[in-house]
Amino acid sequence: MTNQTGTGLITNQKSIALRIKRVVGHRVWRVITRPIAFGLKLMPQSLVFKVGMALRKNSYPYCLITEGDTAIQVGAPADLLRIGRSRAVFFAMRVGASGHVFIFEPEPNSAKAMRDYLQRNGMKDRATVVEKGCWSSDRVLRFWSNPDHPASNLLEDVSKWDETELRARQYQPSEVPVTTIDGVLDAANVTTVKMVSITTNGSEDEILSGAEKTLAKADYLALAETGEEVHALAQSVGFRNMALDDRGFTAARIVE
């Protein structure tokens, strides 16, 4: 199936479930799917991920990553890990023992949960969990987290709500260190990158500003669907949209 966007005709791999979610809204969707999420929590995580990987092996962005690749995942909330939907884990499964995934997650509980999962499932050596947020520079920013739904966590600088609204929505403030993707990959002497995936809540512009050198050597870029402007954002940094995926869209480097 194809879909028309401002940057051209691209493949639409969004599931029927995700299309329904977009229509009914996030809150209603959480209520509808709560029994499914509860059932998934009762299953062994490793089994849920094996099934999930089998279902995703031919889907973007996962099908683009192969044994030995280097991938970057910004955002690894614990709630998606619990229900077997963590993109960071799927990437670690795809790169294999000879590849590597750099995982950025500023929320301490989510970062620990990821490290523990990788350790339990023999994937510790193929992943680096950076317990920091991503930004355009190294600094400390105010971070708002929701213990019941870590996937909705966000930095105050990009929040559309003020402090009163955030507290009313059960978010809790803290201070977190942020860094640049370029800084981390330079320190690790990474020379090639297959995929840069950013699934955050509005920080994409700042994160990409701190990843210019990394993007110059990356083949693909995947961004969460946080607004129509992110499609143009991918093109502005040298990537052309190729598919709508399970979080947003995947784009390929533009080759002149």
Helix content bin:
25-40%
Number of helices: 11
Side by side, the strands of the main sheet go 1-2-12-13-11-10-3-4-5
| Mean pLDDT value | 88
The figure for the number of domains is 1
What is the number of beta strands?
Answer: 13
- Name of the top-level CATH class: Alpha Beta
- Give the SSE string: EEHHHEHHEHEEEEHEHEHHEHEE
Query: Could you name the CATH topology?
Result: Rossmann fold
Characterization of the model:
- With 256 residues, the protein is an alpha/beta fold.
- It has a single domain (2-13, 45-253), classed as Vaccinia Virus protein VP39 (Rossmann fold, 3-Layer(aba) Sandwich).
- 38% of the residues lie in helices and 26% in strands.
- The protein contains 11 helices and 13 strands.
- It has helices spanning 16-24, 26-42, 45-56, 78-82, 87-95, 108-120, 163-168, 181-187, 204-209, 212-216, 229-236, and strands at 2-5, 8-12, 70-74, 100-104, 127-130, 133-134, 139-145, 154-155, 172-179, 193-198, 218-224, 239-244, 248-253.
- A 9-stranded mixed β-sheet has the order 1-2-12-13-11-10-3-4-5, with helices on both faces.
- A hairpin with a 2-residue loop joins strand 1 (2-5) and strand 2.
- Helix 1 packs across helix 2 (26-42).
- The radius of gyration is 17 Å and the shape is globular.
- The mean pLDDT is 88.
